[in-house]
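Read as amino acids, tokens; as here:

___
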Amino acid sequence: MKLRLIILMLLLFSVTNCTKKKQKVKDEMNLYDIEILNNLFNTNLYKKVSIKHINDSIQYVIYRNKKYELQGKLSSKDSEQLDWWKLTDLNTNEKLYEIQFHFNGEKNFKNQIKSFQDNKLDTLKSKFFNKNIENKKITYNFYTPITFNFENKLIVNFIYAFQDKNLKIITKQNIELKRNNKNYYFFSTDLTKNMKYFTAVFTEREISKSSNKIGENYFFVKDSVN
């Protein structure tokens, strides 16, 4: 009986210790530490293990090092990262991050960042948007990381436009969004038949009252309505 109790205690300690180590790794890879994210998604720090040519200009590539697996689409011409990329922990086989790369005409930047804990999306540490169409209304939800520093000042700017099938602008506005009771902002409007494309720029600036430092979350949205 004593032996069983000792074995059970050792197993519990092992599981708890493993969980703490995984949490420590996640804490070290904080969303706000751009340098760490840049290194984690830097293909030059990995070995290419698989490549699949989607077409003449795009290829799907899988990279690995001792700790992580990184996979996503590359431009065949200049090796720029395209669209969504996924980072997986090879030791636990858990998904850690998904990042959407977007080229804005000048540079390639991390447009959306999804952080995962135990393979579940952690919306409090992520920067992404989603869409919902229901009862002839279209709604976009914008998630940004929560700092829980309620003394800081948040300023949100939202510029959007709807276009028809010929890319003619139907409506265009610059409005201020407010965070709802949950951890995201939302924009909702009536959906009409001629609305085909949606383009928007979402900017959230957080100003620290103690240091006057400014943090910024930025999205570019280019989406087909239907």
Summary: Residues 2-28 form the longest helix (27 residues).
